[in-house]
Amino acid sequence: FSGSFGEVYQTFHLSIYMSSNNKFSISPEMATQEVQPNETLSNLKAESDTLKTKLEDERAKLHDVELHQVAEKVDGLGQFIMKTRRTLKGHGNKVLCMDWCKDKRRIVSSSQDGKVIVWDAFTTNKEHAVTMPCTWVMACAYAPSGCAVACGGLDNKCSVYPLSLDKNENLAAKKKSVAMHTNYLSACSFTNSDMQILTSSGDGTCALWDVESGQLLQSFHGHAADVLCLDLAPSETGNTFISGGCDKKANVWDMRSGQCIQSFETHESDINSVRYYPSGDAFASGSDDATCRLYDLRADREVAIYSKESIIFGASSVDFSLSGRLLFGGYNDYTINVWDVLKGTRVSILFGHENRVSALRVSPDGTAFCSGSWDHTLRVWA
Amino acid sequence: MTISTLTRGGAQREQQHCLRKMERVIIAMQDPDIGLKMRNQRLLITVIPHAMTGNDIMEWLIQKYNITDEEAGHLGGLLVQYGYIYPLKEPRSLILRSDDSPYRFQTPYFWTSSRWPASELDYAIYLAKKNIRKQGELVDYEKQNYNLLHKRINHTWDFVVMQAREQIRASKQRRKADRIVLECQEQAYWLVNKPCNRRALVRNRVKSSICLESFMKFCDQYHQHDPIMSGCLPSNPWISDDTTHWTINTDLVGTPTRLRVERWSFSFMELLNDCLGRREFMTYLEKEFSGENLCFWEACEDLRHGESSKIILKVEEVYKTFLSPGAARWVNIDSKTMERTLEGIKQPHRFVMDDAQMHIYFLMKKDSYPRYLKSDLYKNMLSKAIVPQETKKSVFPFMRRQRHSSPSPAMVSQATEDNGKAKGAGPAATNSGTLS
Which has the closest alpha carbon to A299: A282, A284, A277, A286? Predict the structure, then answer.
């Protein structure tokens, strides 16, 4: 060895892959080449495709039966009557998002004109109203304690407003900026407490934030385009969540490590909404391709498609009834379709909104669901 | 702090920036004029060239960057953690000792930045080499990883073994000093960059028939509990305008409904998620002198989901109350988990209690929970539980009942705050009854 500096830079190429008849020799050499002579780009691509096919074959091996086959022995659902029981009027523009409070009757909603309103949906009274400094408030969420709401949109931020009962107090004064993305905020959700928020954004990432300090706790990279939606798992270890994006992919993430642990790509267009099945073993998605789909996390595959020739417009928002038997989908053609999750059939179509349905959530105790629409109203159905 | 706009590999790109800065420091340290003076170090009977002592490193950093001992120790420690400098004595202890312990610079070939991400195949070959060279040389986690990889990339295992053998053969042809240097470099690299146990590594796919059956079972089990499917008693508030259904189901109601108590038997999570159920379970555990398990679990949940600023404090509290020898509410965790947890506490973070928490959770789930369901405590609860009468349909269906408002959760917590309790302590559902 010559000088210290030279020695340090001399390397030994240890992972040269040799064939058994000794085509390549091992000798200390400068590790300048990473790729061996016969590993051309097309070879590597071919290898990648073979691996993909192998993966699909592995998945398919365990697919021994279809959902609707298994569901044949289940009773069909009878006549289904659900009506609008409350109409919440007060937004001056398109309603973009809504969320339920844990008290089962309060709701927060946000709209294109920057207004965020908290309602007691049971009495239809407005309890709080905030005007955001930006338009298109695409995301809003109620804190688990019921004492605050989070919202954001074109401001690229997610802000938390503590709810004060002093009518004279300006809620905007106590606003706390928590999340900062480099593009619009598409969805937000508190985790198990008021102290952490999970966000998704048009910048292609999701992120987990500490509310008190605004610190970024974890970021999630993997989508190739805008992320439009997210949902937290109800599982007992409580460490995963799903996201859907404009890259047609639905990803499952480990909150602790930031890793994407599963990915599903069967939709033909943007995924607007994802929601876990109540047991946490599956999730549903709604897409611009006018279908909703069910993905089983343990079988690692899509197991049902909810679609009809007559449904042409995209599904913007989906949620399950408490038992997971029904899937409600709000669509861009102003309707709400109700699907039998097990049998794959549509049990009902609900009319009422006069423009796109943009948001849909079932209440925490499953007694009703709420839909928000571009017709400026929200409706509670039961 | 913002998130940078990018597609894949964002976190890696952020890390790359830090790595480049570290590399600049390392290169300066090796500069022939202003860098460290290196010398031969003895490792057992072999002389290792171009090594330096921990003390040398500290002094150079203090002098070059005009920083204190403490900061130099911290910076030097990071250089070791990230694999740019590795210790020759006690290679598994990736810390910088400010004494005459020998260290060496890692070859750029093995820098984290140039080799990221560590390939599974390379790691498998490395472990195979170790295993072949000396049977039983693999440590615990290496044995685990070896088995995992053996399962996962089983189809290329012949190749892995062949490569390992070839590399061992080739290294035998080198001078002893070179060989030792290379082994040290490689070992150091893998100590820093061992692929973490990702869930993807052990995903076992389940047959469709089994998964789909589970959906049927779930839907069936919850059918009666789904108000939209089966109605609710006495009536659905949204339809009848009568909030009795909510009043009789408040969080800490005196006598719960039968459906609610039945639901506690569906899964352990259902029991814990219902505050009344959880309180009953705590009562049961205390009778069995194992209440500390649930308390520990709750404290861990609070740690995981609480403010970042309180993490260190909470970890200390948990340690004092549940884990330290002779603790007031000592929890019974297996020795391996305890060891790992105690080690982790030295650098407290949000997830440091995860292993211990999961251990206790499954202990309760497999042992205490099934016994609780068979206990008199639960059976009495079930027999006392009420089944409300279904409200008769109104004679005058067009006469709407008056819709009463309810106290806002925000007001409730403000009141409790006035009483000196923590804000937002309870879930919002506590008071969703009617005001008469």
Answer: A282
Count CA within 13 A, CB hemisphere, residue B381: 25
Q: Are B423 and A147 within 8 A, CB to CB?
A: yes
- pLDDT, tens digit, for every residue of A160-194? 999 987 766 778 888 999 999 999 999 999 998 99
Cβ atoms of residues A16 and A32 within 8 Å = no
Query: Dihedral sign, CA of A312, A313, A318, A321?
Result: negative
Nearest to A287 by CA among A341, A344, A244: A244
Residues of A in contact with B85 (CB under 8 A): none
Asked if B162 reaches chain A (Cβ–Cβ under 8 Å), the answer is yes
Residue A249 contacts residue A223 (beta carbons within 8 Å): yes
Q: Which is nearest to B426 in space by CA: B250, B237, B243, B258?
A: B250
Sign of the alpha-carbon dihedral angle for B413, B418, B422, B426:
negative
Mean pLDDT of chain A: 87
Confidence of residue A290 (pLDDT cuts 50, 70, 90): very high
What is the dihedral sign for C-alpha A144, A150, A151, A152?
negative
d(CA A305, CA A297): 15
What angle, 0 to 180 degrees and rounded to 10, lies between the N-to-C axes of helices B176-193 and B157-172? 140
Tell me whether A380 touches chain B (CB under 8 Å): yes
Closest-CA residue of chain A to B8: A222
The β-bridge relationship of strands A216-221 and A157-162 is unpaired
Asked if A229 and A273 touch (Cβ cutoff 8 Å), the reply is yes
Residue B8: list chain A partners with CB under 8 A.
Answer: 221-222, 224
d(CA B305, CA B307): 7
The type of residue at A222 is G
Share of residues in chain B with pLDDT > 90 (%): 42
Q: Which two tokens stand for residue B111?
A: 């820098």
Residue A341 to residue A77: CA distance in whole angstroms: 11
Q: How far apart are CA A275 and CA A262, in angstroms?
A: 15
CB A251 within 8 A of CB A263: yes
Q: At residue B422, does pLDDT exceed 70?
A: no
DSSP state of A77: P
Interface of A with B in 36-55 (CB under 8 A): none
pLDDT at A48: 67
Structure pTM?
0.70
Q: Which residues pair with A229 in a beta bridge?
A: A244
Of residues B209 and B202, more confidently modeled: B209
- The minimal CB distance from A207 to the residues B3, B208, B305 is found for B3
Asked if A82 and B228 come within 8 Å (Cβ–Cβ), the reply is: yes
Q: Quick one: CA dihedral B20, B6, A231, A152, positive or negative?
A: positive
Contact B34, B73 (CB under 8 A): no
H or E element, residue A379: strand A378-381
